[in-house]
Amino acid sequence: xxxxxxxxxxxxxxxxxxxxxxxxxxxxxxxxxxxxxxxxxxxxxxxxxxxxxxxxxxxxxxxxxxxxxxxxxxxxxxxxxxxxxxxxxxxxxxxxxxxxxxxxxxxxxxxxxxxxxxxxxxxxxxxxxxxxxxxxxxxxxxxxxxxxxxxxxxxxxxxxxxxxxxxxxxxxxxxxxxxxxxxxxxxxxxxxxxxxxxxxxxxxxxxxxxxxxxxxxxxxxxxxxxxxxxxxxxxxxxxxxxxxxxxxxxxxxxxxxxxxxxxxxxxxxxxxxxxxxxxxxxxxxxxxxxxxxxxxxxxxxxxxxxxxxxxxxxxxxxxxxxxxxxxxxxxxxxxxxxxxxxxxxxxxxxxxxxxxxxxxxxxxxxxxxxxxxxxxx
Length: 377
Known about the structure:
Elements: H1 21-32, H2 42-45, E1 57-59, H3 61-74, H4 77-80, E2 84-87, E3 103-109, E4 118-120, E5 124-130, E6 134-138, E7 141-144, E8 150-153, E9 159-163, E10 170-176, H5 178-183, E11 189-191, H6 205-209, E12 231-232, H7 234-247, E13 256-259, E14 274-280, E15 289-291, E16 295-301, E17 303-308, E18 311-316, E19 320-323, E20 329-333, E21 340-346, H8 348-353, E22 359-361, E23 373-374
Parallel strand pairs: 18-23
Antiparallel strand pairs: 1-19, 2-3, 3-10, 4-11, 5-8, 5-10, 6-7, 6-9, 8-12, 13-14, 14-21, 15-22, 16-19, 16-21, 17-18, 17-20
């Protein structure tokens, strides 16, 4: 698409004013009044197609894990608030984003440790990498989560985290829309007045209320704009993929893919961030496509590689990588005998709400991008 002759800034309809001494003097006069001429920046701020500052990146869990664990003795939980190693895109260091307006990082909690409660404008989600004692309390509901479980912390909800295990740390991946909130100048943050919440008596109450194929009847109607389920365990989620794989060929671009859903609406779990789980059959190679919206992927199971904007990124369980908006991408499962699974979160709900959603398939070379540069494998 970028090679299309129609994307020529010299054509009529685009800003193509040539500078002159008189114009330069005119610009100086405008600048003194904190003003400017649109035609000097029009082609930059109104590009032919998305021009993300983010670049594709892969963060290897095996490389990061020792550094994440080193943070335990170096930083006290009460001093850090949250002990997190954030993953920063080289093109988005200015806003501490992993890709687009999405943030991600690896949080570690030591045995028996509990973090204080707080709330903020940003929405958050969690994907557990290791450890069996993780818990979170969201607006008084205590939720236990284990490896590869997914949990949400909707914006404005009181939440705190901890590790009930007395033996090993917990490491989970945070995902937040902090850069989006800050771009809109809408950020707020509060520390709980009692530092800790008083959890309800029933653990995993949201899971118990919305399980199986049935919905609660006769209870107070849920009217909040996010899912009433705060946790999505790995086992039933993976089984749902296996079941769908028996009934459907899946997507040519994503394999067998499912959305973590609000059970009351069928829509995304939160208004600003969605999440998916997808399965690649043994040896499967998807074809390439691109779309508006940024995505952070985590390899939940298996090994493979993804080609993003012509670069190959090899991944295995625990690795994290990102796909910037409008970047061509495709996925390959390198194992001929086992499936592979990718967890991902995205800003698709924002794109949908603002009617910015757009998608294209890649038709050349049988739907597969030429690899112009291999990543460091």
